[in-house]
Amino acid sequence: MHYPHRISKIKRKRKQGFLARMRTRGGRKMINAKRRRGQQVNIA
User: Which pTM value belongs to this model?
Assistant: First the structure.
């Protein structure tokens, strides 16, 4: 059964993944802020 609003894993990764964040200035700031807080940031 296909549920509504189920986004594919590939689309999600491309839009919200690590590399997508690294492409924008704000995304890089967010990742660095997470690292400063001691949160693990996965690259894969």
Answer: 0.72
